[in-house]
Write a structure and sequence with these properties.
By secondary structure, the protein is of the alpha/beta class. The protein has two domains: about 35-65 and about 310-410, Alpha-Beta Complex (Aspartate Aminotransferase, domain 1), CATH 3.90.1150.10; about 75-310, Aspartate Aminotransferase, domain 2. Helix content is about 45%, strand content about 15%. It has helices at about 1-35, 75-90, 100, 105-120, 130-135, 155-160, 175-185, 210-220, 240-245, 275-285, 285-290, 295-310, 315-330, 350-365, 395-410, and strands at about 55, 60-65, 120-125, 145-150, 165-170, 190-195, 220-225, 255, 270, 345-350, 365, 370, 380-385. It has a seven-stranded mixed β-sheet, sandwiched between helices. A three-stranded mixed β-sheet has the order 1-2-11. The chain has a three-stranded antiparallel β-sheet with strand order 10-13-12, covered by helices on one side. Helix 8 (about 210-220) links the parallel strand 6 (about 190-195) and strand 7 (about 220-225). Helix 4 (about 105-120) packs parallel to helix 12 (about 295-310). It is globular, with a radius of gyration of 24 Å. The chain binds pyridoxal-5'-phosphate (PLP). Pyridoxal-5'-phosphate binds near residues 201, 229 and 257.
């Protein structure tokens, strides 16, 4: 009996191994092809707070030009303190979704602060902007309606659109003639909504919101913008695309993240017209079936909007840094996409060159990212630089000097 049992155990194990065996082989092959294509993602292990200067797990130091830390708030002591105080007073987590027993006064106050920041009527929090975009279309639109989406919109918008049964139309990036054609095509549907990122993360270009709103009015469409890369960054005081293009009151839905300019932790939101937000609270699945953000995150979020209300210094410094970096890089002879945001694309066009360039920059202690097809169009490889209010002039000068050195070594510069 004892022996038989052992044999069964061994047989059982073998059967399990065989079943995973085929799948394992499949995954190994797939992973190898990702590596062969040079698309395998390795992670840098940071052993310090996020900021302009970071320390890696191996003790080496680097200047960080590839975080979305636009206002430099990721290691802000006021935010850390606000989180600490809230955790001491309100505990660690909520253990609930919002509508059952997961709402504190802090959540309501943060929603109010977000609506105030964007000059909207109400706001609803999510665990991430990925969830905000995943949960915005399906509750509002049906197969009778149409979503008209910019071709370079973020993955979370694409997924959100997929989860909704509305008709889908796509227009070329920021191309108003194409948008108009798609709006004409969509006249047969009950409701139409135009959806765009505020700032597109690869070129750093801004969606032409004034023209989008004009077309929306002409063709009777709603307007939604994802402010993840634009809020805190564009506009005279950094309040995003509505401020930049004077479009307050003409945009029906904004989505955004607390994970970029607004502190860099986690959390997303949708803000806009009262009835829309109310309907999302009733029907939006990532809101109904996923946990509340923890009290400390809500408190730090509130502190973020307080800091931004007190002074525009962080945004002013960001703009100064972007201008300084861009002007000196252009003067050095680099081919820079005409940025309107905190994203500067240094064009190299050649994919292997972009990887080599980024690797050499890392050797110089500067972290930037090399992007190439399929992340950007074929033959449009580049280095993406993200500026931050956390950068000091000395950081910028060091990065520019490294760019010039590597640029000469790789014969990008003459
Ligand atoms: C980063 C980003 C998101 C996702 O935000 P999370 O809060 O990190 O989920 C959504 N949309 C756009 C345009 C983004 O850039």
């Amino acid at each position: 009996m004892y022996k038989i049992n052992i044999i069964f155990v061994i047989l059982g194990t073998q059967i399990k191994l065989t079943m995973y065996g085929k799948f394992q082989k499949h995954l190994q092959d797939e992973l190898q092809s990702i590596k062969d294509a040079g698309l395998y993602k390795n992670e840098r292990i940071i052993a310090s707070p996020q900021g302009a200067e970071i320390t890696l797990a191996d003790g080496s130091k680097a200047l960080n030009f590839c975080a979305n830390n636009y206002l430099g708030l990721a290691d802000n002591p006021r935010l850390a303190k606000a989180a600490e105080v809230a955790m001491a007073k309100r505990g660690y987590g909520m253990s609930s979704v919002r509508f059952i027993c997961g709402t504190q006064d802090l959540h309501k106050e943060l929603e109010k602060a977000i609506a105030e920041y964007f000059h909207t009527e109400d706001a609803i929090l999510y665990a991430a902007c990925f969830d905000a975009n995943g949960g915005v279309f399906e509750p509002l639109l049906t197969p009778e309606d149409a979503i008209i989406s910019d071709s370079l919109n973020h993955a979370s918008i694409i997924d959100g659109v997929r989860l909704c049964k509305a008709q889908r139309l796509r227009y070329a990036n920021a191309d108003m003639a194409d948008l108009e054609a798609k709006l004409k095509e969509a006249q047969q549907y009950r409701f139409r909504i135009i959806v765009t990122d505020g700032v597109f993360s690869m070129d750093g270009n801004v969606a032409p919101m004034d023209k989008i709103c004009d077309l929306a009015e002409k063709y009777d469409a709603l307007v939604m913008v994802d402010e993840s890369h634009s809020a805190g960054v564009v506009g005279k005081t950094g309040h995003g695309v509505a401020e930049q293009f004077g479009c307050y009151g003409r945009i029906d839905i904004f989505t955004g993240t607390l994970g970029k300019a607004f502190g860099g932790a986690v959390g997303g939101f949708t803000t806009g017209r009262k009835e829309i937000i109310d309907m999302l609270r009733q029907r939006s699945r990532p809101y109904l079936f996923s946990n509340s953000i923890p009290p400390m995150i809500a408190a730090a979020g509130l502190e973020t909007f307080k800091i931004l209300k007190e002074s525009n210094a962080l945004h002013d410094k960001l703009v100064e840094n972007v201008n300084y970096f861009r002007d000196r890089m252009m003067a050095a002879g680099f081919d820079i996409k005409p940025t309107q945001s905190a994203i500067v694309a240094v064009m190299l066009y050649d994919a292997p060159l972009s990887q080599k360039f980024a690797a050499k920059m890392a050797e110089e202690g500067i972290f930037v990212t090399g992007f190439y097809y399929p992340v950007v169009p074929q033959g449009q490889a580049r280095i993406r630089v993200q500026l931050s209010a956390a950068h000091e002039k000395a950081h910028l000068d060091k990065a520019i000097a490294a760019f010039i050195k590597v640029g000469k070594e790789l014969e990008v510069l003459k």
